[in-house]
Amino acid sequence: MIRVKSIYAARSADDGYRILVEPEWPRGAPKGKQAGCHWMKSLGPSNNLRGWLKRNPRKTSGFRDRYLAELGHNESDVDRVAALLKEYGTITILHAPDYDVLEIAETLASYLRARCDAG
User: Fold this and answer.
1) For residue 100, which of 66, 52, 68 has the smallest C-alpha distance?
2) Domain count along the chain
3) Phi and psi for 111 in degrees, rounded to 5?
4) pLDDT of res. 119
5) Where is average pLDDT lowest: 57-61, 71-75, 88-92?
6) For residue range 35-44, what is the model confidence (pLDDT) as tens digits?
7) Residue 99: which residues within 8 A CB-CB, separation 6 or more?
């Protein structure tokens, strides 16, 4: 199972392996062991694509297409997450509360679900 959750939400036993894909650590979020998550910046969209989404917040389908193309070039990290999903049974993708960041997390979760079901 792949879930999406705010990094500010309380950790729960059913979170499984928690992954943050933000380029910068969210302000005020716990760090280190208190965070209880692995920081995988490389699975997030490029800075150029993040900027594009901020300038075009209503063009979510265009963002998804571009982000999926980027993920297609990041097979090693995607394979790593697939292995973690097999090991832990659940992966929780953590996001900051901004709309554009939620869009990123949801797109990544959808991609990983499809990839892991097919693989």
Assistant:
1) 52
2) 1
3) -60, -45
4) 47
5) 57-61
6) 778 889 899 8
7) 57
The reported pTM is: 0.84
DSSP state of 11: P
Both structure tokens of 83:
């292995």
- List, edge to edge, every strand of the sheet that includes 17-20: 2-6, 91-95, 17-20, 38-39
| Owning domain of residue 24 | 2-118
Q: To 10 degrees, the CA torsion angle through 23, 27, 32, 33? A: -120
Q: Tell me how far the alpha carbon of residue 82 is from its chain's centroid.
A: 13
Torsion region of 17: left, alpha or beta (phi above 0 gives left; psi -120 to 50 gives alpha): beta
Report whether 93 contacts 7 (CB < 8 A): no
How many angstroms separate the CA atoms of 75 and 67, rounded?
13
Side chain identity at residue 92, one-letter code = T
What single string gives the DSSP state of each residue in 41-54? GGGSPPHHHHHHHH
